[in-house]
Amino acid sequence: EVQLLESGGGLVQPGGSLRLSCAASGFILKGNAMTWVRQAPGRGLEWVSFIYPDSGHTSYADSVKGRFTLSSDNCRNTLYLQMNNLRAEDTALYYCTKNTYFSFDIWGQGTVVTVSS
Amino acid sequence: QSALTQPPSASGSPGQSVTISCTGSSSDIGGYNYVSWYQYHPGKAPKLMIYEVNKRPSGVPDRFSGFKSGNAASLTVSGLQAEDEADYYCSSYAGSDNWVFGTGTRVTVL
């Protein structure tokens, strides 16, 4: 069964760092594009970042550019989202998704990030 | 990277149809045939309902259909059922490996 399992969320102070993980099972990351999407409390879905694990090519939303770094460990079949200089507005439920035909067909259950002092 | 515009809410009685609009620009919806729609129950994993404007993944009922014209897209749910009550989000490819989501629409089955 194709699955994505996010982990690493938690409570962090403003300006702090956190690393989210997304473990893929039932398929290999290489050959598939992957994306992180978040939903802040009371707000809609927001596209965060994208990666081609084959090449390591990434892209980021303006709201996180320069602070977030997405990488892929193809041996562990796991994505990592390194989040630095976190702000209150980064508080959200973070989802890892698999891309297909420029859409997102497989989603994890998400991991919660809370940025607060 | 402005969010696509959706109405906050839509509703219909069981058996009726409801259509949700999604308005963007020539940089996203108007520029690509890569509009997708997601059914979302907050706190759970979103579910892909439509991709590439009007294609349904395996397992999605044909009651769900998508359409696009110019810079706007729409999702129609025909024969509304109680289980269709959820939040719905549109999304569009916006070029340069960037995507944008809509503001979301809560569908209520009366």
Shape of chain A: globular
Low-confidence stretches of chain B: none
Q: What structural category characterises the helix and strand content of chain A?
A: mainly beta
Mean pLDDT of chain A: 96
Helix-strand string of chain B: EEEEEEEEE
Distance between the termini of chain A: 40 Å
Mean pLDDT of chain B: 96
Can you tell me the residue ranges of chain A where pLDDT is under 50 for at least 5 consecutive residues?
none
Describe this structure in words.
The complex is a heterodimer of chains A (117) and B (110). Chain A is mostly beta strands and 117 residues long. Chain A is built from no helices and 11 strands. In chain A, strands 2, 4, 5, 6, 9, 10 and 11 form a 7-stranded mixed beta sheet that branches. The N and C termini of chain A lie far apart (40 Å). The mean pLDDT of chain A is 96. In chain B, the strands form 2 sheets. In chain B, strands 1, 3, 4, 7, 8 and 9 form a 6-stranded mixed beta sheet that branches. A 3-stranded antiparallel beta sheet of chain B has the order 2-6-5, with no helix packed on it. The radius of gyration of chain B is 13 Å and the shape is globular. Chains A and B meet through strand 4, strand 5, strand 9 and strand 10 of A and strand 3, strand 7 and strand 8 of B.
Tags for this model:
heterodimer; A: 117 residues; mainly beta; seven-stranded mixed sheet; four-stranded antiparallel sheet; globular; B: 110 residues; six-stranded mixed sheet; three-stranded antiparallel sheet; 9 strands
